[in-house]
Amino acid sequence: MDELLFTRSNHKTWYESLRKEDNTHLEDKERIALFYLIAGNNDLYQKIAYIYEFKYHQIKDCLSNIKSGFFIWMCITYSIGI
To answer: How many CB atoms lie within 10 A of CB 36?
Structure first.
């Protein structure tokens, strides 16, 4: 795997804590990318409980749990395949 470039001092710490909590395998590129993006944004990281379900290793249903503009953005980009 290519080495990740972390943008802030806590970016790497937050990323590693998300991966550890999820027990993400290093070959799981999609989940690694998700945690990298969430860890790089303070607002997203603070809302992780509304975004990701660690128990089931999946993104939560964004339509039934709208807590921020992120969920609207996530639903739209997921729907159109961005």
So the answer is: 19
The Cα–Cα gap between 18 and 23 comes to 8
Distance CA 8, CA 80 (A): 30
Flag whether 73 is in a domain: yes
Distances (CA, A) of 59 to 8, 38, 53: 24, 12, 6
Residue 4 has pLDDT above 60, yes or no: yes
For residue range 13-57, what is the model confidence (pLDDT) as tens digits? 999 999 999 999 989 999 999 999 999 988 889 889 888 999 999
User: pTM surpassing 0.90?
Assistant: no
Residue 4 lies in a domain: no
